[in-house]
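User: I'm putting together notes for a lab meeting next week and I want to include a structural view of one of the chains we've been expressing. I don't have a solved structure, so I'd like a prediction I can at least talk through. The sequence is below, exactly as it appears in our construct file.
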Amino acid sequence: MAKLLVVSVVMSFWLFSLNNENADISSLRERIQQQIRGEYHLGDVDLYYPGASLGIVEVDPETTDADSALHAADIAMYQEKKHKQKTPFVAHPALHS
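Assistant: Thanks for the context. Below is the predicted structure for the 97-residue chain, given as C-alpha cells.
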C-alpha cells in the first residue's frame, strides 16, 4: 500500500510524495537540504544559508487526514530544530571586483 510522505519545513511550506516502498527518509532529507542550502547573491549582499529544519513523517493517506499529517510533520520539524546545531545565516556586503 502506498504511503504519503509529508515534509514540514521551518519556513512553512510542505512537500508531499507518494511512496510505494520503504522511504529512505535520511536520503530524502539530504536531497532537500542540498537544494536549499548554499550561497545566495542578492544584489549587494552575499548570503550563506545553512539549510532548514525539516520534519518528515510517513502517513497512511487512507487513515490520516491532511490536518493530522501536517501537524505530525510540524512536530517532527520542531523536534529537529530543537536538537539541531545552531548555524547562523551569514550575510555580508558582496565584494565584487
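A couple of points you could mention at the meeting. Strands lie at 3-9, 13-19, 38-42, 45-49, 54-59, 90-93. The two ends are 57 Å apart (CA to CA).

User: Perfect, that's what I needed.
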